[in-house]
Amino acid sequence: MVVGLRYPNLEVRAVDSAWDRPVDVEKAVEVIANWKPDLVTNVVSSAGAVPVDISGWNIDIGLLGSQKAFSLEPSLGIVTVSAKAWKQIEKVNYGGYDALLPFKSFQKSGVFPYTPLWSALDAMQLQLKTVYGADNKLAAQVYKRHEEVAQYCRERVKKMGLKLWWDSDEGKYADLNSASVTAIRVPENTTWEELDQKLRKEGVVLGG
């Protein structure tokens, strides 16, 4: 239960990649509706893999990247901005090198705030058309494939004798597993530090 909201901005992760938990952003929006904060949502690990309704969920600032579900190089940081957020951005009038305001007039002026990485933009356009189809007609198939692959990964993890972060004998936490991130517990007979060293000797680097 939200007792009080003292801040004008609220940051939410659509999928908490540290522990493989999808967050019901739509439900969160309902809970905070009375306070009307600017909703900043990290959709880096969810956009492209599961449905994300930026407008329908009233997400004011959406943060995503090209390197996750879109399967591209880590070359683009992408920001979605709502009309409400633009008003706040104009009010603050921040002028740093990472300011968003200069981007607002880009489509009319044709002047980009800095030299754009055209190859990365072209790659993203091509990937969206190829994988998701015209007007996102293939998006449902992509989401289904992510669900199937995630389920396969979870089954393989269990066959290896490892445990999922949300694993339980009763299976009551199974619905907390994300379709875009699979979190695995460190085996009981070792520590993360020991496991990390062994993996690095094999040329494998994992986050944990």
Automatic annotation (TrEMBL):
- The secretion signal range is none
Q: Which cofactor does it need?
A: pyridoxal 5'-phosphate
Say if the entry is tagged with keyword rRNA-binding: no
Q: What keywords sit in the KW lines?
A: Aminotransferase, Pyridoxal phosphate, Transferase
UniProt entry tagged with the keyword Transferase: yes
Matching InterPro entries: PyrdxlP-dep_Trfase, PyrdxlP-dep_Trfase_major, PyrdxlP-dep_Trfase_small
Q: Which GO terms describe its molecular function?
A: alanine-glyoxylate transaminase activity; L-serine-pyruvate transaminase activity
One GO CC annotation: peroxisome
Q: Name one GO biological process term.
A: glycine biosynthetic process, by transamination of glyoxylate
Name the chain's protein: Uncharacterized protein
